[in-house]
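Input/output pair, single chain:
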Amino acid sequence: MSASPIRLVVGLGNPGPEYADTRHNAGFWWVDALARELRLDLKPESKFFGFSARAKLGEGEVFLLQPTTYMNRSGHAVAALARFYKILPQEILVVHDELDLLPGDAKLKQAGSHAGHNGLKDIQAMLGSSDFWRLRLGIGHPRTLGLNQPVVDFVLHRPRQDEQPQIEEAILRSLQAWPALARGEMSHATKTINTRPKAPKGEG
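Output:
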């Protein structure tokens, strides 16, 4: 699966300390981790409605973005930066929390439905395209996890103590695919991200 290199990485979340550790901010966590790996500082950029960073990458550049517009207006930030630097939808990776995957799971895909995720919905509307890539970080669903909790309340709370390490492991595993994503080697990146290591026998 040969494709364009990723030129813009967007982490989805909500701004402010009250949301920093909530499940809905998993995309922010991933971009924070990538920024540390690339030794970049995310800084406020009003014209892009968020925190952004820029780095040389071979002969090109990569941009990191955390919208501070709140989740349901994420597309305003993404579209502003993408249009300014002439970045195509297929050159954008959006990292977000995913209810349909268990904590510890991660999946890479291109295009498709927003599946009710307000951040993806607004990005798709503002770009006028669904062709961007998505890195889905599993947070589980309250029903799947045996919780009697509305989805809106669930995503705006912290992961449980046993879930946090699993989400962090998925972030670290999927970060290993960054060099492939930056080169447009999507089949290699997909295999790295989508394959969750099996626990050694005897554990647990």
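The first strand starts at residue 8 and ends at 11. The first helix runs from residue 26 to 38.
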